TrEMBL record:
This is Gene product 88 domain-containing protein. It comes from marine metagenome. Residues 80-190 form the Gene product domain.
Length: 191
């Protein structure tokens, strides 16, 4: 598997796309089988590798996505450009307003880092179930007061119900400064 400075091989990109597709469609058994195959391809005990994160993610799926999530839902501090809390989901798969930008979307570059990919996959899957949304809401409520939150650094509101969910969550936390960018204009018009 690639190191931090190397780009992943094409196989890794294809595999990440297959994992994302299965996760976005809720195909848990198929996703678990692919994760198991990744684990067995290398050392699943070596932190920072695709095998390691695939193992953590598969165990979480096997537990019914209950308990502690394998990755933080909101990323605190981000990087030097993003000194605040961020939320991301799968690019492309969660972007109903995507257009030509899909083919040059910067968000796919984050998939060089398996932890970033699996956080996006986890968040996309959480938002697609009532139980998962409760887990996200719990993490939302734990963000300290008077902070800035950027929704969807990667990904976008994938449905009108997801947009309504976030609008309600934002109203609940008027102590937060929340913003984001979206190409899902049609969903906003449905509100």
């Amino acid at each position: 598997m690639p190191t931090k400075k190397q780009k992943p091989p094409k196989v890794a990109r294809k595999l990440a796309l297959a994992l994302a597709k299965a996760g976005a469609k809720g195909q848990v058994k198929k996703l678990a089988a692919m994760l198991k195959a990744i684990e067995s391809a290398g050392d699943a005990g070596k932190p920072g590798t695709w095998e390691y994160y695939a193992h953590r993610f598969r165990l979480w799926l096997a537990g019914g996505m209950a308990g502690e999530t394998p990755f933080s839902i909101f990323r605190a501090g981000g990087n030097k450009k993003l000194p605040f809390f961020t939320f991301s989901s799968l690019p492309g798969f969660d972007c109903p307003g995507k257009g030509d930008c899909l083919f040059w979307c910067y968000s796919f570059k984050a998939w060089r880092y398996p932890a970033a990919f699996f956080r996006q996959l986890q968040n996309s899957m959480l938002l697609r179930s009532k139980h998962g949304r409760q887990i996200v809401l719990k993490a939302w409520r734990e963000i300290p007061a008077n902070r800035t939150v950027r929704l969807y650094v990667d990904g976008d509101f994938y449905s009108a119900s997801a947009l309504r969910y976030w609008m309600k969550a934002c109203r609940e936390r008027n102590d937060l400064r929340v913003y984001g960018y979206s190409k899902s204009w049609e969903l906003f018009l449905q509100l």
